[in-house]
Known about the structure:
Blueprint: E1 3-9, E2 14-20, H1 26-37, E3 44-48, E4 54-55, E5 75-80, H2 85-110, E6 116-120, H3 129-139, H4 147-159, H5 167-170, H6 174-181, H7 190-200, E7 203-208, E8 213-217, E9 225-231, E10 236-243, E11 253-254, H8 258-273, E12 284-287, E13 293-295, H9 296-307, E14 312-314
Parallel strand pairs: 1-5, 7-9
Antiparallel strand pairs: 1-2, 3-4, 3-5, 6-10, 7-8, 9-10, 9-11, 12-13, 12-14
Helix pairs in contact: 3-4, 4-6, 4-7
Amino acid sequence: MGFSLKLKTKSGQQHIVSKLAETTTVGDLKTRIVELTNIPGDALHVVLGFPPFKPLDLSNEANQVLASGISNGDTLIVEEKSLTEEERKQLEATKRLEQDEKLAKELAAQGTESGGILLKCVVPSDNSCLFTSIGYVITGKVDPDGAQYMRQIIASTVNGDKHEYNEGILGRPNDEYCAWILQPESWGGAIEVSILSAYYGLEFDVVDITNAIINRFGEDKNYGMRGFLLFDGIHYDPLYLESTNGDAPKTIFPIEDQSVYQQAEQLAKEAKSARQYTDVNKFTLKCIDCDCFLKGQVEAQQHAQKTGHVNFGEV
Length: 315
């Protein structure tokens, strides 16, 4: 015989959990509550809604609900318990690990190594190419509007750890850097890739065709998955695997999939041989602060030292 329960949240929302059975376990009920309230399972705090209030033990998910003192028609009060910063970080890390493992299994089942060609997806040259490229790796879509969100992530991370991100690392005072990276004219580089790698729990392998090498960001974190970015000395583009058997393009790969990494290495060598990179001593930049044009990285650095201007755009 089935039974139902009522849920009330701290915000006043009410839900009905119906079609429960005598064999329904605490784990089953917990899953239903998470679906209805969007409260993470590890942050759930549930009590029976009648005096004296009795917390529901969610730790033993194999127990049957009826054995926990719950009866048909009872009201459960659901709250989201506060987590310490350490607990929150641990929860996020666990979720990322679970997602990585799930995605790794899915990709392995799809046969990533069975065939495909690593190709470049061209993104706009608008000073946010790094962020747009990382967004493509994460979502599979070219969305320049997502760049500002990543800039905010970086600024928040840097501002939150001024010991780690000091002037020696950033090349400028911490507060000045945070204001600078939020500007749409500011370019991203190694520091920004490293921060976003940690934020997304994903290794980013930057294929540097200027030197025909691959720089791995997050390699020491033992992430289960990786994405690839192509860097020509000034501009970033994401790489994706075009399947030879009609499957959808892939942008994230298991670390152990060496066939894709080898393709990336070969791509770097071939692109360098074909000189498909930007000579940083010859390309033209425009100073956003005073509208003057500069040739090469050296002139830009000299101009910055002389004027204090640090905002440059691609021409």
